[in-house]
Amino acid sequence: MTNDAVTNDAVTNDTRGGRELVEQLVFGSMAAQTVRAAVRLRVVELIGDKERTAAEVAADAGAEPRPMARLLRALASLGLLREHTAGSFSVTPAGALLDPGRPDSLTSLVRMFTEPVMLRAWEHLDDSVRTGDVAFDTVFGKDFFSHLKELPDLSAEFNAAMSQAVRETAAALPHAFDFGRFSTVTDVGGGDGTLLSGVLRAHPALKGVLYDTEEGLRQAPATLERQGFSARCSLVAGDFFRRVPEGADLYLMKSILHDWTDEQAVTILTHCREVLPSAGRVLIVEPVLPEVVDTKTAGLTYLTDLNMLVNVGGRERTRADFEDVCRRAGLSLTSVTPLTRAAPYCLIEAAAA
């Protein structure tokens, strides 16, 4: 084989690989809607831990057998089901996460992030890139969280999705940070209390305060009761743009600052600084972007960054960005530690400057 032939083969392989990547990305939205349909039709629940035919699943779902077979085969191609013989399927370990009855279920996360309300603004990503404006606000005439406030069912779904998204962090965080040197932790924007419950379980001497809006706290009493922490954790409703409750020596925020602009993030942090005792700390749990994209560790973080752009106006940040917003709030960033068991999150610790 000549050198030209080798070169041409290499170019052809590179082109083919590039084409496959682009096609996979373009069809990604279709894959997401396939998973959404599976959740809405309760496919994984109906198959359960058995092997069932498409006709059986269709009958239980109130669907037509042939289209159901096509859906199940698409789910098998995505690795969520396995087709054993023609038209007969079982659930894979990944597919089992679509069963709402499992404690590690991701069904609310699927519903929320395939919800048309979440996706409409993405149609205007190019406009947000051109202008820097939040596409959601333009499309709906109000900001994302105000819109959620008007839709109780969607707000509850959002809270459930955030609870499912935080479970891995709730398992890893308590063992990755020295909570034992503090007496009271306030989880700022803590939602239903899933994360704080994980911390309290691992540290019996610690008291907790769950701080969020009334909508954000709506599912919290049930979570704390179920976890057995109602007596050790108080609920405080409020707006972190106005104040943060005093009385804690540790203020925890997980995936809060990335929802907001730098100016808004500084406001939130300033309110933490105003009530922070001299030996207190602020602990921020968020991804920390490298200065240059590392494709081996990037994961979904950069897509999350664009989601912040189009839907809420926030952003993911580099270490330098976190240092800047902390400095402007009167805080000094003391350490950044990767949360290896819950990548891509990092523990960003800050003290009074």
Automatic annotation (TrEMBL):
Domain named O-methyltransferase C-terminal: residues: 122-331
Q: What's the protein called, per UniProt?
A: Methyltransferase
The record's PROSITE patterns line, in alphabetical order, gives: SAM_OMT_II
The secretion signal range is none
Gene3D superfamilies from the entry? 1.10.287.1350, Vaccinia Virus protein VP39, Winged helix-like DNA-binding domain superfamily/Winged helix DNA-binding domain
Upper lineage = Bacteria, Bacillati, Actinomycetota, Actinomycetes, Kitasatosporales
**What are the recorded GO MF terms, alphabetically?**
methyltransferase activity
Please report the stretch or stretches of sequence annotated as the O-methyltransferase dimerisation domain: 24-98
Q: In terms of domain of life, where is this protein from?
A: Bacteria
- InterPro entries found in the cross-reference section: COMT-like, COMT_C, COMT_dimerisation, SAM-dependent_MTases_sf, WH-like_DNA-bd_sf, WH_DNA-bd_sf
